[in-house]
Specification:
The structure holds 3 protein chains of 3 kinds. Chain A is mainly α. Chain A contains 13 helices and 2 strands, in the order H-E-E-H-H-H-H-H-H-H-H-H-H-H-H. Chain A has a single domain, classed as MetI-like fold (Orthogonal Bundle). In chain A, strands 1-2 form a two-stranded antiparallel sheet. The two termini of chain A are about 45 Å apart. Chain B is globular. The chains are: A mainly alpha, B mainly alpha, C alpha+beta. The interface between A and B is large, with 96 and 97 residues.
């Protein structure tokens, strides 16, 4: 009697089952992310303006050339870079501060922990509307800002005129502040989990070795959080570059072009100018920039041997 | 002692930071219009008037923006339909994929992980035009399905990533024990693995729901009428109506936030453990 | 009730050979232990008996049933895991009843059987609790109850005691032995703890690098280890091994000795007769701590010359015994002696080996030269 070797059968089906299980997800993502991305690239090589639907033709990299030569693009890119850089930095600092607080044990910690999720639960566009109110003419924060400018003027004998959201500087940084506020909880959750994973013996050992509390943070907490900081940096970089709904609701890109972040610029290109070719070239550039940044971060993760395949 | 005190001050600052903007808007939503212009922090004469508009309690349809406000209940239903479908799609597609990645060694798993990670890093604006054309060509514009599909695709990679991490924390021996106890592979999955991973599934499901509830760009692009418009889009429509008093906008904002806020409070522990644990674990 | 036969069982994980061509016959109701260091393939072998791993080659038979391709749920087995693997979302009762439920046992019978098993394992009072509310020892009992309740033909245990603290381990060890006496089941037990294997087993299979080193009763493995690995792994403290060369004495005609750095040990004629080409052969001389005597306590028989002159390096009192580590020509040798000995660090002494109980192993391969060829 010949006995079928079952392991032989298994090895063929072994790869089939996991692939089958991944199939629904892969199909969805291929259909609604990979395919559109491909189309997006193809369209970016065309002249394609909805205002002239009869004049759709291939013209290679012309859209890219136009964009790279336009001051609008460079303005949007710099604003987005500034926006993203500040957002990543502030989110990491504030989220870390709150995570360290939540790691301490004190009465009422549960309350703080519950309140932590409030900003996260608020939809981006509602967040924008909310900050419109806060920073608008009658807004509570607007009054506070105006008062503090007055105090600064008085103390230092300066003559700063506070114009609220009409000032490009205020508008851009207010947008960053609102964006950061909403992004802090997610980052904080990640930091908190990472802090709680640090073995307490490490702190005891450092205490025995005579490390001050700053040194314990510097030489134990921070190295242990390296992975978490990178993860947050990846997420927040992506979020920074795609910030749209907040801008839409809070500033509408203004005043002037002060808050024309690149996602907003793309949206305008597509649906205000109806230039689909140009807008796709824009969106392709954003994708390339975020992907490049993501690859850099992921390489950093790999180099530290912190990502397992 | 000093340390205690500074810890509480620190905590207080954090609480103020996290809650003040929302608290102010909530307060404003109960103010009569004139109190806002006085830059108040607290309603002197609290009123439900701003909310009444949304539910037509006193039916003063002459109010500015009343036409849009009246669509609010319907928009909430739209958001509920979309969010629930997105959650269910995430849970089914996500848990299948994550289970394979976490449990079954196979060739190409690294490639798949990179594909998911790559999908996550594609910004929404980058695919909005092709997506719009795609939905248009399938006649899906202004349907729930178009929004559901787009929301599912941008939440799914994250869901898979989190669930994979979560699944890996479940000891393999549990399923082995179930097999020895007489379960088929599917039986072990249904009777042991899924119940044990319920907290993670709930966390991820809520996460997907809230993400969908709050998404704006695709919802704005794909929906044109109240047949499919979710609350986020309606809220922004409303705010762009001229002369709608901010108190009324604030009330609308509070209504939009209410459900995700309640969900995040209810499942707070699961979300914090589920998301935090598997991202860093 | 089942006899388990493994035929040329092999398991590869990629390029790693976890189990290499193992053939083994486990008798019905036998308590068989798979003993070896971590990574020796013992757990993989157990998993293949359970059906949790499929072999790369070879077959598994339960009595006259080839189960090689039978999934675990259809084999008549129960298993206790190192981590216990209790279902955290079920009460203790449901944990124990789960296997019965899956096999379609009616509710009434289920209840009766669970209560019986709970009584055997003395966990009747814990039935309503969830696993997380139990101590380590209680979890262990629940895991055992869950396994025995189904009255399986083969009972597989994967290092079940290794997560318990030392005292509890001794209690549960006794419990397991009682259980095996009461139940009419075949036990296959995996451990890296040689003491457990000696106490519990009918037979021990010593494994290393996926291969069987020796199969035998605890006594035979302890008394006649097949090679230096088994000799060193089974027994505590580990056997003393000294490298030396077989020589024939010129003065006393025919008398053989093993001579090495700082020692010379007589070897009986009957031992030498078993060895091929004894003259000049490199060997390992093995002697267990209890087979070594020292000058002050033992009265050497007339004509018995000391093996070595040594000095005490470490003194370790163990209550009922005293262990001395002594230096013999640069090697450490552990000696068991009476606890009232006054010997201490730095003292010099003469060391005697019981020439009937020494072991000789090949100097290159480590294989015993004492076993019948």
């Amino acid at each position: 009697m010949t006995v079928l070797n079952p392991s032989h059968l298994m090895s063929r089906t072994r790869d089939a089952l996991p692939l089958l299980l991944n199939l629904p997800a892969v199909i969805l993502l291929l259909a609604f992310i990979a395919y559109p991305i491909g189309i997006s690239f193809w369209m970016s090589l065309h002249r394609y303006n909805l205002r002239r639907p009869d004049q759709v033709y291939f013209h290679g990299l012309d859209n890219y050339a136009t964009i790279l030569a336009s001051s609008e693009f460079w303005n949007a890119l710099w604003i987005s870079l500034y926006f993203t850089f500040m957002a990543v930095l502030l989110v990491i600092v504030i989220a870390m501060a709150i995570a360290l607080l939540l790691h301490e044990s004190f009465r009422g910690r549960g309350v703080v922990r519950a309140l932590l999720l409030i900003p996260w639960a608020i939809p981006g566009v509602v967040n924008g509307l909310m900050w419109v109110g806060l920073l608008g003419d009658y807004g509570a924060f607007n009054a506070m800002l105006a008062d503090s400018v007055a105090v600064v003027n008085y103390l230092f004998g300066l003559d700063i005129v506070y114009t609220g959201m009409a000032s490009p500087f205020v508008a851009l940084n207010a947008a960053i502040g609102a964006h950061v506020w909403r992004s802090v909880p997610f980052a904080c959750i990640i930091f908190l989990a990472a802090i709680q994973a640090i073995p307490t013996e490490q702190y005891r050992a450092a205490r025995v070795d005579g490390a001050t509390s700053w040194n314990r943070f510097r030489f134990i907490t921070l190295p242990w959080l390296y992975h978490a900081v990178l993860v947050v940096a990846i997420f927040e970089t992506m979020n920074g570059f795609r910030a749209f709904d907040l801008i839409y609701a809070l500033t509408g890109g203004g005043p002037g072009d002060a808050t024309h972040v690149i996602a907003w610029q793309t949206y305008k290109e597509a649906f205000a100018r109806l230039d689909f070719g140009g807008a796709n070239a824009y969106s392709y550039l954003i994708t390339v920039i975020t992907m490049t940044l993501a690859v850099i971060y992921i390489r950093l993760l790999y180099r530290r041997g912190l990502v397992q395949g | 002692m000093w340390r205690r005190a500074s810890l509480y001050i620190y905590a207080l600052v954090a609480v103020v930071y996290l809650t003040l903007p929302f608290a102010w808007v909530t307060a404003v939503s109960f103010m009569p219009e004139r109190e806002v212009t006085q830059q108040r922090w607290w309603p002197e004469e609290p009123t439900m008037g701003n909310y009444n508009l949304y539910f037509q309690v006193d039916g003063r349809s002459a109010d500015v923006g009343a036409a849009i406000a009246r669509q609010f209940p319907r928009a909430i239903v739209n958001s509920l339909i979309i969010g629930t479908a997105v959650m269910l799609l995430n849970l089914t597609c996500g848990s299948l994929a994550a289970y394979a990645l976490a449990r079954l060694p196979f060739r190409g798993n690294l490639l798949l992980l990179l594909f998911y990670l790559g999908s996550r890093s594609v910004p929404g604006v980058a695919i909005m035009i092709p997506m719009y054309l795609l939905m248009r060509s399938y006649g899906l514009l202004d349907t729930h399905l178009s929004v559901i599909l787009s929301h599912t695709t941008f939440t799914l990679p994250f869901t898979i990533w989190i669930l994979k991490g979560y699944f890996q924390t479940v000891p393999l021996d549990l399923e082995r024990a179930a097999r020895v106890d007489g379960c088929t592979p599917l039986g072990a999955l249904v009777r042991v693995f899924l119940p044990v991973t319920t907290p993670g599934l709930v966390a991820v499901g809520i996460f997907a729901f809230i993400a969908s509830w709050g998404e704006f760009l695709f919802a704005l692009l794909f929906t044109t009428t109240i047949a499919s418009r979710p609350v986020t889009v309606l809220a922004s429509d409303f705010a762009q109506e001229l002369q709608v008093p901010f108190t009324v906008i604030a009330a609308g904002g509070v209504l939009v936030i209410l459900l995700p806020l309640v969900l995040s409070f209810l499942f707070q522990r699961l979300i914090i453990q589920g998301i935090g644990g598997s991202v860093t674990g | 009730m089942a006899r388990v036969r493994l035929k040329n069982l092999t398991k590869h994980f990629g390029d790693v050979v976890a189990v290499d061509n193992v053939t083994l016959d486990i008798a019905d109701r036998e308590f068989l232990t798979l003993l070896g260091p971590s990574g020796c393939g013992k757990t993989t072998l157990l998993n293949m008996i359970a059906g949790l791993e499929s072999p790369t080659a070879g077959e598994v038979w339960f009595d006259d049933w080839n189960v090689t391709a039978v999934p675990p749920e259809r084999r008549d087995i129960a298993m206790v895991f190192q981590t216990y693997a209790l279902y955290p979302h079920m009460s203790v009762f449901d944990n124990v009843a789960f296997g019965l439920k899956m096999r379609g046992v009616p509710t009434e019978d289920r209840k009766r059987l669970v209560l019986e098993a709970a009584k055997t394992m003395e966990i009747e009072l814990l039935l309503d609790r969830k696993p997380r509310a139990l101590s380590g020892g209680q979890r262990q009992r629940v895991a055992l109850a869950r396994a025995i309740v189904r009255d399986p033909g083969v009972f597989l245990l994967d290092e079940p005691l290794s997560n318990l603290d030392a005292q509890l381990r001794v209690v549960m060890r006794t419990e397991l032995k009682r259980l095996h006496g009461d139940l009419e089941m075949t036990f296959v037990y995996v451990t890296h703890d040689q003491a457990e294997s000696l106490i519990l087993s009918d037979r021990i299979v010593v494994m290393k690098d996926g291969e069987i080193q020796q199969i035998g009763t605890p006594e035979s493995i302890y008394d006649n280890p097949a090679n230096t690995f088994v000799a060193g792994f089974v027994g505590s403290p580990p056997i003393n091994l000294l490298k030396g060369v077989l020589q024939q004495q010129e003065s006393a005609a025919g008398a053989w000795r093993v001579v090495g750095d700082g020692f010379a040990c007589n070897v009986s004629q009957s031992m030498v007769e078993r060895i091929e080409d004894p003259l000049g052969r490199e060997v390992f001389l093995g002697a267990r701590a209890e087979d070594i005597g020292i000058e002050s306590e033992t009265n050497p028989e007339p004509g018995n010359t000391p093996v070595a002159r040594a000095s005490v390096v470490v003194r370790e009192p163990m209550g009922s015994d005293l262990y001395l580590t002594v230096d013999v020509g640069g090697s450490n040798v552990k000696v068991r002696t009476r606890p009232d000995s006054r010997m201490d660090r730095g003292d010099g002494l003469d060391v005697f080996f019981d020439s009937e109980k020494i072991h000789l192993f090949d100097g290159q391969t480590g294989v015993s030269l004492m076993l019948d060829r």
